[in-house]
Specification:
By secondary structure, the chain is an alpha/beta fold. Helix content is 39%, strand content 16%. It has a seven-stranded mixed sheet with strand order 4-10-9-8-7-5-6, with helices on both faces. Strands 1-2-3 form a three-stranded antiparallel sheet, with no helix packed on it.
Amino acid sequence: MNKAGSSGPDNALAIELAHLKKISLYRRRHLVDGPVQPETIIDGNRVLAFCSNDYLGLANDERLVSAARNGLDTYGLGAGSAHLVAGHTREHDKLEQELAEFTGRARALLFSTGYMANIGIASALLERGDAVFEDRWNHASLLDAGILSGAKFSRFRHADTSELSEKLSRANARRVLVMTDGVFSMDGDMAPLPALVKACEKNDAWLCVDDAHGIGVLGRGGRGSCEYYDLCAEDVPILMGTLGKAFGSFGAFVAGSETVIETLIQKARSYIYTTAPPPAVTVATRA
């Protein structure tokens, strides 16, 4: 028997961590003091922050903060359980209705995070024998969703609808899903959604758009990439948006048809088996 610490996982992992430091890929967390705002305190230093996703400055808006306080007085802190057990409050339900109306969809479904929403979409709608195609620059949550779905996973060159169309024409699958960011998080460019819609329609594929960075800041009414391109629910049947960026709150949602949302409720494990978002946060999001 080896002596504790002389070998085993700790030693092996320490070597990998040292390598990450050597090649400058080691991640470090910074300590933030105070609310999210342009000028903030990070690691004890007052700085001007350009890295926040709080695009509209709502995370520290007194109207939302006040709403959250009222929500705490009414509901307490946590939801207490999953939506399908006893965690789905009237505030959750009202927010889903308002998000559906806001995005022009029949229904919307709240998720605790955007990562969980994307995992839920792919896992609920796809299985072995299906196919999923994704832009190479997609967010990690979309890529992981496609890989974990069990469907045949394939990527196409960034914003290259010609390559996607070629791949779609050769797809031999029961069901085909195309997943893309609306606004790509690292470079800020937009997906060519009108061309993607045409490619999907031609090849009988479903289009899912993760508009985490478009909702709230694009389009005439802030409804995101779809509104910017004048696309409707029939063009983009599955829309994901997050609430922790332009909305200044926390969580995520998926908007779509009655059938799509009901399928997610019944089959999306990342929805079924997790605690609902805190009701007070939901009250603030509604505000």
